[in-house]
Amino acid sequence: xxxxxxxxxxxxxxxxxxxxxxxxxxxxxxxxxxxxxxxxxxxxxxxxxxxxxxxxxxxxxxxxxxxxxxxxxxxxxxxxxxxxxxxxxxxxxxxxxxxxxxxxxxxxxxxxxxxxxxxxxxxxxxxxxxxxxxxxxxxxxxxxxxxxxxxxxxxxxxxxxxxxxxxxxxxxxxxxxxxxxxxxxxxxxxxxxxxxxxxxxxxxxxxxxxxxxxxxxxxxxxxxxxxxxxxxxx
Length: 234
Description:
Blueprint: E1 2-4, E2 10-16, E3 21-23, E4 33-46, E5 49-56, E6 61-62, H1 64-69, E7 76-88, H2 90-98, H3 102-130, E8 134-135, E9 139-143, E10 148-156, E11 160-164, E12 174-179, E13 188-198, E14 210-218, H4 220-233
Antiparallel strand pairs: 1-2, 2-7, 3-7, 4-5, 4-6, 4-7, 8-10, 9-10, 9-12, 10-11, 11-14, 12-13, 13-14
């Protein structure tokens, strides 16, 4: 079935039942959809936990990032109630996109990817806030571009740690962390990314200088060790 949203854009309609998946996060596809009836839930998986990032209603458009940036789907789209969506005509969209200069197409792609990054960081923040942070002082080591830095944790959770240091790394910088747990001769190793940092001056009234980091990759064995330490610290 086809109908015209405007005098130019044609859509092919598809109807989904309540709870049915329209597309999965990580899948490939670059169709753009518009909701004609019903609602759509957009969600992401962050460390195996579902985070709802938006609830869309009639007239809302979704799926545009896959078309503009040519990347895998960054969220899962699920129908809420019986939902009808229109798939926007690709011939029309391609024609309109190709009318833009290559420079403007690059700008459009950059903006789309920046929005995806902002959404991803916000989703990870939601999960981190739900995780219990335990005040815990543990010795740790990490490397900057020049040397090995010895520092200590101020608080820690299953998903990340605040490192108290006068030499915090730059935001989004990735590094390997060696964290020394009580009564364990081998340090816990984790690949980390700096979520935020804080530099303190003499007249500053903020907290300790340092950086909040999230764990990007950690073995299940080391994660279990960390969970036991956190449980003991409650």
